[in-house]
Amino acid sequence: MEPPERTRGVLYVIACAAPAAADVRRLVVLAQETGWRVHVVTTPMGERFVDALALEQLTGDRVRSAYRMPDEPKGLPPADAVIVAPATFNTINKWANGIADTFAVGLLCEVMGFGTPIVAVPLLKDALARHLAFGRSLDALREMGVRVLFDPDAPSHARMPSWERIMQELHSAVEERHSQR
Fold this sequence. Notes:
Elements: E1 9-15, H1 24-33, E2 36-42, H2 52-59, E3 81-87, H3 89-96, H4 103-112, E4 118-122, H5 126-129, H6 132-143, E5 147-148, H7 163-179
Parallel strand pairs: 1-2, 1-3, 3-4, 4-5
């Protein structure tokens, strides 16, 4: 792969425990091809769905899923943008309510405070999508400026947009953020 002509900045890709996380490598490659320096974070259960070694080789950085210990150096540079895909029912609800009991959710809560462009892509079962708390959480995240790619009317097998579509939405969010400055 040829290096991109320009660097867009640092992108956090946060993957949760859903089947699409097994293919998150494709998202990382697409992001790198468009100039992003990618750092992958997973939820504790999401770590079981990804190939951490392959992602580490691809990004040149370790995949993080837990808070660092006080004697460990800080490792993540500040994010210029974030993609949360796939985002589970649990992560969406905890994030929207500020329950930072995992590194991934704590990081999301913190990054929101900086006004960083964030795209969230929920992937969950129909029954969970109909839960009242989930709808309220999506509304809260949107109110806080998160771009949410979720169509509740789409069949469950078609709810996850393509990685290319997710990248388009991210670039749109970043451009919008830059035009507001």
